[in-house]
Specification:
By secondary structure, the chain is an alpha/beta fold. It has 17 helices and 21 strands. A hairpin with a 4-residue loop joins strand 3 (57-59) and strand 4 (64-66). Helix 12 (372-390) crosses helix 16 (447-460).
């Protein structure tokens, strides 16, 4: 299979709207009321001080912060309505604004399905590397959100620098990742500044971004609060996602979960703006529904897509960039279930206009496991989603009424210049899907087999660093805790 190329990233869409306009305004109003009347628990001293200095009502004995509506509205107004996640080469920049849609990996899974044996095993640094190389190759993935955990790294302060180094070493696309310690975060930022040529250069064109977390329901813990404040001071893009689950950490109704989502993530945006006005904050929507038989988190429920699509409408209402979720599955192997669950949620959340949809390629087993084969299959699904987002272009040339009249009844269009002009760009051209008849494919080679072949092809290619040799050597000298497999 040939190398895949990027085409038309950031297509706009707002064709799926589960919420009516009146619903959006009601949910927004209730979110303001919750933050003002009930507030958030804050266990970070940095966050507590930032909120207090910005005008929040603070009860330090209870770790409780209440956010006046005017304070939250001011934060929304000062947060950038547009944030660019830069790639180092410039080809895959992801412009998060309005209803422009981009796709990426994610999940920080702790397992992978081994590409050789097909068996589930713990993920390693080598999987961080191969996932980055895969993402670098797949054209419908614009951002590499580091999607697996290096289980062999036991020191918590060494996890972040290992994950980000091996990601940056193996893809030139934008790298986003969750973080595990404040010390580790400092190292990653220092490393990124070395690559960029300084702090100002990184802030101007950030090719890395970070994910902290609001812990549902309505809690900012010490580590995530301190990390968020540090990134806001640095002026680097930071996502403040929330993960409420229907019936456990949020009300069981979709409406109650959506309200929890937007209120919590607005609390995170308010923290960012309390630290530094104009810092690039990104709302986050990750939650889902509950398996009522086990009370476990559900990854592939269609309601998850409905929730995230609704939050996308609210983010567009507030004009704040959004990090959303789609494409996930509860399937235990790459099968029919993994395909239909991923396809349904990918399409719905895409059609809602969510700006950056992470988790949308490769994840399964309720976000615990990454499959390399599924990465390739999901890339095909995303190509179809992007074709839907392009819509039907209607003008005199595409309607071709004059051509129809010229040809007249009973004539074909095979030799028409109009056909040659549009035949390569009008349709989505699949890379692994079968479109031949049985006699042309007597062995019955299917999409999964082609996906496996592509994974093997990427594995066998010579690995080349995406960093200059000088910078790479300097990084490895400054950070000896980086493990080279």
């Amino acid at each position: 299979m040939e190398n895949m190329k990027n085409e038309e990233p950031g297509l706009p869409s707002s064709s799926y709207k589960p919420l009516a306009d009146g619903d959006i305004k009601k949910i927004a109003g209730e979110a303001f009321r919750i933050l003002e009347k009930s507030g958030m628990l804050v266990y970070s001293k940095s966050a507590m001080a930032a909120f207090k200095n910005a005008g929040a009502v603070v009860d330090e004995t209870k770790n409780l912060v209440k956010l006046p509506r005017s304070m939250v509205e001011d934060a929304i107004a000062s947060n950038p309505s547009s944030v660019t996640l830069y790639s180092r080469e410039g080809e895959y920049n992801a412009l998060l604004e309005k209803n422009r849609v981009h796709f990426g990996t994610g999940g920080t899974a702790i397992y992978v399905l081994d590409p050789k044996t097909g068996e589930r095993r713990s993920s390693t640094i080598e999987d961080v590397i191969l996932c980055a190389r895969m993402a670098d190759t797949l054209e419908n993935i614009q951002v590499f959100t580091i999607n697996v955990f290096p289980n062999e790294i036991k020191n918590i302060d060494h996890i972040d620098v290992n994950r980000f180094f091996h990601a940056l070493d193996n893809t030139s696309k934008h790298v986003m990742g969750g973080i595990y310690s404040l010390d580790g975060l400092h190292k990653v930022v220092d490393m990124a500044e070395m690559i960029a040529g300084g702090a100002d250069a990184l802030r101007k064109r950030p090719f890395v971004s970070f994910i902290t977390l609001i812990i549902s329901p309505f809690k900012i813990d010490g580590n995530y609060g301190d990390m968020t404040c540090y990134l806001a001071k640095k002026g680097l893009p930071v996502v403040v996602p929330t993960e409420p689950i229907c019936g456990t950490t949020s009300p069981i109704t979709l409406a109650g979960n959506i309200l929890t989502h937007i209120a919590e993530t607005l609390g995170g945006i308010t923290l960012i703006q309390s630290v530094r006005k104009g810092a690039p904050g990104i709302c986050g929507s990750v939650g889902s529904i509950t398996n009522l038989n086990t009370m476990d988190h559900v990854g592939g429920g269609i309601e998850r897509a409905m929730i995230n699509s609704s939050v996308a409408q609210l983010a567009q209402y507030f004009e704040i960039p959004l990090y959303s979720t789609g494409g996930t599955s509860d399937a235990l192997k790459v099968d029919v279930q993994s395909a239909y669950e991923s396809a349904m949620s990918s399409l719905l959340v895409s059609m809602s206009g969510a700006n950056y949809i992470h988790d949308i390629a490769g994840l399964m087993e309720a976000d615990l496991t990454v499959s390399y084969d599924k990465l390739v299959i999901d890339n095909e699904i995303l190509g179809m989603c992007r074709r839907v987002l392009r819509g039907v272009e209607v003008n005199d040339d595409t309607l071709a009424a004059d051509l129809i009249i010229e040809k007249g009844p009973g004539k074909d269009y095979l030799d028409a210049e109009h056909t040659i002009k549009y035949m390569r760009k009008e349709f989505f051209m699949p890379k692994i899907s079968n479109r031949t008849k049985r006699d042309a494919n007597p062995k019955g080679i299917d999409a999964l087999a082609k996906a496996k072949d592509f994974v093997q092809e990427v594995q066998q290619r010579k690995s080349e660093s995406q960093l200059s040799s000088d910078v790479r050597g300097k990084i490895l000298k400054v950070f000896p805790e980086i493990k080279i497999p």
